[in-house]
Specification:
The two termini are 26 Å apart. This protein has 2 helices and no strands. Helix content is 87%, strand content 0%. Helix 1 runs antiparallel to helix 2. The model has no long low-confidence stretch (mean pLDDT 91). By secondary structure, it is an all-alpha fold. The chain has one domain.
Length: 55
């Protein structure tokens, strides 16, 4: 069974890590890093949009 801490903070931590990866990728490079940045920054936005439409 998951701990209560991970149940509450698991997804926000994942979204924060993805956002950091996306921002660093956008700052450091071109080419395939642009794709990494777009995906990493888009996933939290899409997840929040899906959650809002679900409610």
């Amino acid at each position: 069974m998951k701990t209560p801490l991970l149940r509450m903070w698991g997804w926000p931590i994942v979204f924060a890590v993805l956002t950091c990866i996306g921002l660093v990728a956008a700052l450091l490079g071109d080419g395939w890093l642009d794709l990494v940045s777009a995906v990493a920054l888009g996933v939290p936005v899409l997840a929040c949009g899906w959650y809002c439409l679900k409610r």
